[in-house]
Amino acid sequence: MDLSSRAVCGAELLQESGKLVKTTFILRYLQSQPLRRRIHAQLNKGEQLHALRAWLWFEAMALSVENKKMPSKILSDV
């Protein structure tokens, strides 16, 4: 067995090992209500954080646009 075929065998072994880990996790997920609840809670936290960041970004953009318009408004009032 040459070096390249050993590398291929090693890569295949890693792929199969990854499939086994994934399958084991899926089975644990399906069997465990507390695990599903914990994962769901973490997903909700992530979604809420994403929504907050999006809201803050849009607020910052609105303030930026408002600040850019302000000097011309001041000049037109004079």
| Overall helicity | over 70%
As residue ranges, the low-confidence spans are: none
Quote the average pLDDT.
85
Taking all Cα atoms into account, the compactness measure Rg is 27 Å
Describe this structure in words.
This protein is mostly helical and 78 residues long. The protein has 2 domains: 1-31; 35-78. It contains 2 helices and no strands. The protein has helices spanning 3-31, 33-77. The radius of gyration is 27 Å and the shape is elongated. 0% of the residues are buried. Pfam families: DDE_Tnp_Tn3.
Question: What layout of secondary structure does this protein have?
Answer:
Elements: H1 3-31, H2 33-77
InterPro entries: Tn3_Tnp_DDE_dom (IPR002513)
Organism: Dyadobacter psychrotolerans
GO molecular function: transposase activity
Keywords:
single chain, 78 residues, mainly alpha
Short structural summary:
GO terms for molecular function: transposase activity. The protein has 78 residues and is mostly helical. It is built from two helices and no strands.
